Amino acid sequence: MSPHAADPHAVGERIRCPRLRDRVVSAEEAAGHITDGMMVGMSGFTRAGEAKAVPVALAARARHAPFSITLVTGASLGNDLDKQLAEAHVLARRMPFQADPTLRRAINAGEVMFIDQHLSETVEHLRTDQLGPLDVAVVEAVGITADGGIIPTTSVGNSASFAILAKKVIVEINLSQPMALEGLHDIYIPTRRPFREPIPVVSAQSRVGLPFIPVPPEKIAAIVITEKRDSASTVLPPDAETAAIAGHLMGFLEREVSKGRLTTSLQPLQAGIGTIANAVMTGFIDSPFHDLTMYSEVLQDSTFDLFDAGKLTFASGSSITLSETRGEQVMEAIARYKPHLILRPQEISNHPEVIRRLGIIAINTALEFDLYGNVNSTHVGGTHMMNGIGGSGDFARNAYLSVFVTKSVARNGTLSCVVPMVSHVDHTEHDVDVVVTENGLADLRELAPRERARAILDACVHPLYRDALQDYYDRALSRQGHTPHLIEEALSWHSRVRETGSMLAPTQAAAQ
Amino acid sequence: MSPHAADPHAVGERIRCPRLRDRVVSAEEAAGHITDGMMVGMSGFTRAGEAKAVPVALAARARHAPFSITLVTGASLGNDLDKQLAEAHVLARRMPFQADPTLRRAINAGEVMFIDQHLSETVEHLRTDQLGPLDVAVVEAVGITADGGIIPTTSVGNSASFAILAKKVIVEINLSQPMALEGLHDIYIPTRRPFREPIPVVSAQSRVGLPFIPVPPEKIAAIVITEKRDSASTVLPPDAETAAIAGHLMGFLEREVSKGRLTTSLQPLQAGIGTIANAVMTGFIDSPFHDLTMYSEVLQDSTFDLFDAGKLTFASGSSITLSETRGEQVMEAIARYKPHLILRPQEISNHPEVIRRLGIIAINTALEFDLYGNVNSTHVGGTHMMNGIGGSGDFARNAYLSVFVTKSVARNGTLSCVVPMVSHVDHTEHDVDVVVTENGLADLRELAPRERARAILDACVHPLYRDALQDYYDRALSRQGHTPHLIEEALSWHSRVRETGSMLAPTQAAAQ
What is the ipTM of this complex? Predict the structure, then answer.
């Protein structure tokens, strides 16, 4: 028996299926099930609940005996795992999302083939054999039920379908994740086509599945005991600009209520991961809205701030990703929060069917948007991957209201986040209802492109770039067209960054 | 009583609600309900089942007494109605789709504000007061039931929600549309949020609603009797290139069957409107597939060719748009086809929930696509609107398999439909699974952008442009990035068209 399983009492409590107790092995031994060329599915979504020991063992092994795999996860991993795996050249292919600087460099250098995919779609492709077969699933758990059911930790992500569809399953039981997480998860898997039935989720609160992942115990090939914690969130606290963005959005929503389009409880909220979306959610604390619900992917600090402020009645997500302080507080008090929380498979948290049904208000972050409301949320300069589209497309396309937020400039004002034409499109004009910067909010609903351009010029663009953008638009108008552009100049702001490091005109840059 | 209602017997048969019979008026009188600044919803989807008399009366009136309205329809209108309305300057705003050359010119000149919208979304916005209020609905019908229910004709489109949500309804009873159409329609309206229930459609065959539009009879302000037929489809017969496209797709689907991913009955098929998609559907006649079903928007000649060939068991759509000959045959034999047909509101035919549930194989037409599989289906040269996105986004995003088809070149080879970067994005790389030209098919599923580029260069691009595209890609690769581009050159092919009328290099163009 592995030295990790030194406390047989703790392990016995966590593995309630007696015949699985002899499957406990070291991470190295478990990792032995994974060999060159395999497709491996691992738990982990927005730095929460990832398998923590087997990936480290894989990277260690690859350093002296090179091999590579296709790694599929829920979303991003914590604990520098993508970094270690990329540095050890374990990753031939990676999907559907990542957020690691080292892996990002390898992707942009063409060393790792990265498939940037809507988060709701990956297991749909696996289930229909368009992707796969999946050789091994590695899933973090708080424990295993008497029947062999796997109880996830701080994320569900794609873990359920990975475990169900893989030939073999490795379970990492993490003793640092409280057993009190049991009962938080709602594992529902859509029925097979052609007899697929409606997904019965009709509100954020709907419980429609099992509190564990049902897997035949004989498929569990190895169990590893770990104690490493989730990485803390890297989200920064709100600042003046993110507070201004939140303020614009609150004002807009209040006007929607006064027009009778929304009630003061709004509709279920989704917020993308990151500093700006988190800050916007924090903005609801001092708002007139109440009895709010969330139907989102990642639940961040702001979710628990809203619970504590008495603003939020229920939150459904696929993961919980918190700062260090917040993480400790929440895990200590998890029994108190649990009646108001559900974690679902990302296929269900992000499902087009449920998103359209519930009428989600979706708030996601843009890298840049253009005069006509097209949004780039993935590519720097049109070429270099940042993180990936994540769930933003799942939500934006199907939401009741699709909001994109960004600061109006980046890199000390040398980049405008409002440009003539985005250098890469992740969300088309058809899927973007509202755009917000610290300068203001443009409501693009039911507007033609020329009207959208005027709204964005009036409200969103930074003063440093307003004249240049207005000049571009005026000259583009002279060429006519439904969506006026000077096609030879449309991406010139991005070319200028390549040449000069700034989108500012040379005279302006000199004056800065 | 109007002279149009000259045959009281025919009218009596069609208007079964006796107290509505005295609402029959002339088109001019009915059009009097529509005044300057109103928002008006009219029936009509892909030239089928549009209100035919009131729009003509509106255009006639505007010629001597100018006024303008916001016109919302299902999709495109037939009988040159958009042309007449545009010429008479009746249209201040128009949504969500059109396909008329005169209106297109007015849109591109900025005279008509055109909102190019996913076809599933318009009534969702109306119902939630994001769009509207709708002053008048004008709906073509074969008749009115004893309780005042409106029985649509050859399209449902948005007619049901228009009639339900408008303050007043004008019904055009078209005597040229056979009464035998009754029973073809399935009118289901999603329940109101926050208590919206799953849409119970679980197969193309599911009948879940009423065979008529339920409207309180007192809301029917006027009835107009017409006899004008639907316009015939403008779809061209298959040619060598569209047959080659169909052949590549059939070969691909056969390989999917041999891999066990699909059965020989495939999954419900959707095909966009137009010559290429219609030709591709015709390709199923001589294929090994059988017991096919369609869950689509428009049912074209090919649908009935497939019925007659014994290949198709059921077709669900939102309209029937046929060539002149096919139209006469089908309408004569409609009783025979009816058990195998359903026409639904476009909100349901195109609903993300149903499309994802059924696992649709979606086949839509691209104007151009790029090295990485981004698709432009609306904008010529990145600026000038062709028709609109229609339902292509509703289907592409949520389909099991999202296929885009186009000939590899247009305008005698002066335009390549495979370009370094599309000049406008309607469908992002994330939503495009397969692209096909007459040269070949590229299966982009689970590929990283560099792999997609190689597949597209190998299979799709026309020989005239292959070297230039390969050269662009090779030079872009030297800059690295997840999605390699020469950002200053990415749209240069489109700039060259503006300057020289051709994407060919000047030397090549001279040699042509």
Answer: 0.97
Number of H helices, E strands in chain B: 19, 26
pLDDT band at B259 (very low <50, low <70, confident <90, very high): very high
State the best of B262, B380, B428, B454 to mutate against chain A, taking most chain A CBs within 10 Å. B428
Choose among A50, A63, A72, A116: nearest CA to A90.
Answer: A63
Which residue, among B422, B498, B495, B509, has the nearest Cα to B464 in the 3D structure? B509
B268-277 tens-digit pLDDT: 999 998 889 9
Residue A117 and residue B430: Cβ atoms within 8 Å? yes
Confidence of residue B3 (pLDDT cuts 50, 70, 90): very low
How far is it, in rounded angstroms, from Cα B82 to Cα A375?
32
Residue of A nearest to B370 (CA): A424
Contact B302, B282 (CB under 8 A): yes
Q: Which residues of B touch A389 (CB under 8 A)?
A: 430
For the four alpha carbons of B15, B17, B22 and B27, in that order, the dihedral sign comes to: negative
Which positions in chain B touch A400 (Cβ < 8 Å)?
A: 128, 193
The closest alpha carbon to B39, from B132, B174, B110, belongs to B132
Using the predicted structure, report yes or no on whether residue A361 has a pLDDT greater than 50: yes
- Are B365 and B84 within 8 A, CB to CB? no
- Amino acid sitting at position B161: S
State how far the Cα of A462 lies from the Cα of B129, in Å rounded to an integer: 32
Q: pLDDT tens digits for A207-241?
A: 999 999 999 999 999 999 999 999 999 888 889 99
Percent of chain A whose pLDDT exceeds 90:
94
Does the pLDDT of residue B475 top 70, yes or no?
A: yes
Mutate to test the interface with B, among A383, A423, A429 (most CBs of B within 10 A): A383
* Interatomic CA distance for residues B19 and B149, integer angstroms: 13
Q: Residue A508: in which H helix or E strand, if any?
A: helix A506-511
Whether residue B36 has pLDDT greater than 60: yes
Give chain A positions within 8 Å (CB) of B359: 128, 193-194, 196
Instruction: Check if the beta carbon of residue A294 is closer than 8 Å to that of residue A303.
Output: yes
Instruction: Report the phi/psi class of residue A417: left, alpha or beta, with left for phi > 0 and alpha for psi in -120 to 50.
Output: alpha
